[in-house]
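Two folds, back to back.
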Amino acid sequence: MNAASVSGPSAVSGVGRMAASPVAGRGVVPCPYSTALHRVRPSTMNTHRVGRRFEALAAEYLLARGWTILARNYRFGRKEIDLIVSRGRTLAFVEVKGRRGDGYGHPLEAITWRKRREISQVARHWIQENGGRWDTIRFDAIAVREVSDGPPTLEHTPDAWRRS
């Protein structure tokens, strides 16, 4: 089906039509490449940006405590580690999880066994590529909580899990 055969205000003939949609701004976002409407919750529209901000807060927290940032958002294939840091002869692979509000539980509950396995795979690749002699290699987690009436809080869990 081409754009010419679709009629009505939801017809999409290109990216420029998105703003003209009668449902824009109500959690329903028209896709610029089809006539389908995709539902998006308003709270999730900026999750990537919020996640990056939480990672920046975690990096500042670690730097203030003597850690050196070796890599941010290190990727191997489709998998990623948020922060790779060192202090002395300790190397830490850090997963950052955050929540705005208390509606979805503690942020660290989102680090599933599958996510831990992926982080371990990326960590093995980083060590193979970068070498180094480390007395301790560990996996840390940092929970960032943001509430509307105060500054964000960070909770650092060193050695949060063991390598699988």
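---
second:
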Amino acid sequence: MIALALFTLQLSAQKKEHKHNHATQHNKRNISPEDMATLQTKKMTLALDLTTGQQTKVKALMLENAKKRKDMMVARKSNKENNENKKLTQKQRLQIANTRLDNKIATKAKMKAILDKDQYSKYEKLQQRMAMKHKKRGRKKSK
């Protein structure tokens, strides 16, 4: 009887956590690219101890990336609405993946030019940590 109660309690806790994550993701979609760039720049300033000159350059880069992501999200949404129940072809998925990787490579090169060696090393570690976090979250969703 106690085991059943504990199992039920754990399930309800997981459902609440999922609802919170969904709400947070929904709120992130509604943030303007300018606000998102500002938030990301402030987080990076705290993590990497950026100078004011670096902050300006990083903010411009983050704004450019945020606008690209927002445009891609709008395009995906309109494509999804226009092509109900049609999945992307393999060629389309490959094109999207290539575009995403090209953007990452360009961002990485620009960040390397903006940051000094120590800051860039920290930046790389942060990026790896974020990638692992996203992989873990992806596995949780698939279960």
